Each structure stands twice: as structure tokens, then as C-alpha cells.
Amino acid sequence: MMNSDRNKYRKENDMGKQVRDKEVQEIMDYIMNKGEDSEERVYKLFKMNGVIYEIACNISRNQNSETTQNQIRKFYDYTIKINSKDEKKAKIKLAMMMPQIYYAIQRKVISSDSPFVKFLEDSIDKLNKTEDFENAFNRFLNVFQAIVAYSKKSRSDRNE
After folding, report:
1. Are 120 and 75 in contact, with CB atoms under 8 Å apart?
2. Does the keyword RNA-binding apply (predicted)?
3. How far apart are CA 9 and CA 132, in angstroms?
4. Which residues span the domain enclosing 88?
């Protein structure tokens, strides 16, 4: 690969990362209840071809990310078992997900630069700092459920 090709590839990769970071930030703003909760905003996030859909498609489309449907489901199953009513225990359980995430990265079943990892890291960080934990945690679960559903749909569409 020539130097100019390598630079072009890096620029495209950086632009893709910036777009993913922006999408993840939009999701974080929703989870943390920042901004107006208009029907339009929620629709933009959750609709087919919306922000969450694009993140899920990016996860399942990028075979190099090695993020398997089983890994996505494993982390989702772990989070739905957390009781948001007991904030202290819930925050501890969320923090305990971080070693599991890094273990999965070391095993190469998920990629450290995956938007899925960024979503989990940012969510766990923000949820552990929020004053309105129960509401934020429920929003996080809604987003996570949509990612699970859309990544499954995206994979089945790709395999047809």
C-alpha cells in the first residue's frame, strides 16, 4: 500500500470514528436526559435507519470488529438482571462489567475500537455519576434492547 493510500485510509477511518463518536454522544445525551425529550428526538434515535440502528449495523457489519451477537446478548442479559431500585448495588454491578468487557477484548471476541465498547464504557461511566440513576438506567436498557434487536436484524439481512 502506497503512502497516499495509507493516509487516505486513515482519514476515512478517522472520519468514521468521529461519526460513531457523535452517534454515541447523541445516545448518551438521551440516556442522561440532556436536552428536550421531544417525539422527534426519540424517533430519530430509535427509528429504522436512526442513530441506534446505525450503531447496531456498524457493529454487525464490521466483521473485523469480531463483536459477535452472543457477546452483545451476554452483556445485555447481564444488565437486565440489575435491579435499578437498589442504586448502590446496581452501580457496583455496572462497574463490574468493565473487567468483563476488557476480558472479552483480550480474548478478541470484541474489538476495543468498536462503537459497542464505546457505548458500554460511556454508559457505565455516566450511569455511575448520575443523580437520576433509575431513570437513566431505564433509558440505557431501552437503548441496549434496541441495539440487540437491530444488530440481530442487520446480521440476518446481511446473510440473506
Report:
1. yes
2. yes
3. 42
4. 3-159
Per-residue pLDDT in tens (0 to 9) along the chain, 160 residues: 444 444 443 444 444 455 567 888 888 888 888 877 778 888 888 888 888 888 888 776 654 444 677 888 899 999 999 988 899 999 999 999 999 999 989 988 888 888 888 889 999 999 999 999 999 999 999 999 999 888 876 555 555 5
Interatomic CA distance for residues 30 and 157, integer angstroms: 28
- String of DSSP letters for 83-138: -TTSHHHHHHHHHTHHHHHHHHHHTTSS-TT-HHHHHHHHHHHHHHH-SSHHHHHH
Alpha-carbon dihedral 49, 50, 56, 59, rounded to 10 degrees: 80
Structural domain count, the chain: 1
